[in-house]
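Appendix C: a fully annotated inverse folding record. The material below is reproduced so that readers can follow the format used throughout the book. The structure is listed first as tokens, followed by the designed sequence.
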């Protein structure tokens, strides 16, 4: 991730790839989506742990 971040400064903003939900995203937007995706799943895991009353 740290190696990729500096390369995004050179990525053209007009070049996009469609996302099924969010529409066309450029390289920077895809990169930022990674963190959001992981955060979403970590929150799901915490809710799951709380729901079953166990530490996973």
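Designed amino acids, in order:
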């Amino acid at each position: 991730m740290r190696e990729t971040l500096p390369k995004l400064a050179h990525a053209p903003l007009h070049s996009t790839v469609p996302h099924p939900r969010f529409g066309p995203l450029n390289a920077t937007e895809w990169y930022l989506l990674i963190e959001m995706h992981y955060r979403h799943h970590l929150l799901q895991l915490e809710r799951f742990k709380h729901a079953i009353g166990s530490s996973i």
